[in-house]
Amino acid sequence: MSEPTPALRHFTELKLSDALLSSLQEAGFQQMTPVQALSLPVILRGEDVVVQAETGSGKTAAFALGILSKLDLSHFAPQALVLCPTRELAEQVAEAIRGLAKSMANVKVLTLCGGVPARAQVASLEHGAHVVVGTPGRILDHLSQSRIDFSKLHTLVLDEADRMLEMGFQDDLNAIVTKTPATRQSLLFSATYPKSIAQLTQRITKNASNIKVASAQAEPKITQRFYDLGDTSAAQAVQQILLDQQPSNCMVFCNTKAEAQSIADKLQAKGFSALALHGDLEQKDRDQTMVQFSNGSARVLVATDVAARGLDIAELDLVISLHMAHDLDTHTHRIGRTGRAGAEGLAVTLIGVHDDYKMRLLEDSFADLIRLQPLPHPAADRKPLQSELVTLQLSGGKKDKLRPGDIVGALTRDNKLTMADIGKIKVQANWAFVAVKTAAAKHALSLINNDKIKGKRFRARAL
């Protein structure tokens, strides 16, 4: 893979429609990131491309602009398909495409993922869609039931292809590709480029341009520490580090789903603001967990690597790895979640008796030998930090025409709450979430449950 110098810097230098340029300007996009400058000219020419780029590099906008540039809005048939490893990422991608399509007339973007009833998706498919974004399993399910037709498809995108292969979607991907026209344009994006990705590239692309893009973010300032677990239990070790560091937020990575749930349960029992995220949770529970951690109403997220994929936290104080990751790429991805955009971050790895071999492999990439440190022993009076926010869930969402501004208006109507009492708001299809100061939660619930928003009554509860 090559890493040429980007020749283009501004979106106005590309052959984009006035509508797309307007959307870019409204979204605050001006100068292209390296991944956009390198890949967009190739994508807009209709050629296949394979891009190795990290999360946060701007790759979503790159393939979204390519898709939107080619749409024939008079045909309500799937013309582009974007495959993602998780529902969370698929929803982020769909939202980004909708945002860039704002200035275009009536672009329909449909999300098809597991974890939600297929019945509603079938109804949406009957009404047609220009762009489909989804996970391989659910897309293949609709294909096998002849609910979706890709005969008009001109663009196929595999986003985070390496993760899809790691999650075992190889056969599903092969089956989906066979249902798409051979004349399609294929775009593959991957954070890493193992042998399996090279093989997948050969199968689905034709004469693809290969581009490797360095991270567009500032050089991270990450301090790595390695602690010897010894005879200390994993849960106790995590507690000691959290009490010692007192991070505003922290992700604890575990190699198994059972371990993630166990650690979260033990942290909660000791008074920590902690939640678990793994594949055994129902989708609604995963959604609620992601929202609570993203909006700061939970300080600690204990997760498996696959479940945390698609969760993008701009500022993360601390990352704890409970044992070495299964491979070095995953270890790098874990620690890269802290110290973003030039901020300082701390990545801690807890080393047990079975981690020595993988630790030595990692050590080969270091300038100095890894020195195992003893676990910290925080002062006895240290207490777990509690979140200053609580998340409220409302029984309505985009399908009810509910918007963030409507929620703010409802919460501030009697002038007892101000914007300072309100945190992040996320509106999904059927639900909406808003973070509010803990002290204001009771009054906020009363405002929503005892009055109407846009002439409708909604129920709210604290998560």
Automatic annotation (TrEMBL):
SUPFAM superfamilies: P-loop containing nucleoside triphosphate hydrolases (SSF52540). GO terms for cellular component: cytosol. The lineage of its organism: Bacteria, Pseudomonadati, Pseudomonadota, Gammaproteobacteria, Alteromonadales. This is ATP-dependent RNA helicase DbpA. InterPro entries: DbpA/CsdA_RNA-bd_dom, DEAD/DEAH_box_helicase_dom, DEAD/DEAH_RhlB, DEAD_box_RNA_helicase, Helicase_ATP-bd, Helicase_C-like, Nucleotide-bd_a/b_plait_sf, P-loop_NTPase. Residues 237-391 form the Helicase C-terminal domain. It comes from Pseudidiomarina gelatinasegens. CDD domains: DEADc, SF2_C_DEAD. Keywords: ATP-binding, Helicase, Hydrolase, Nucleotide-binding.
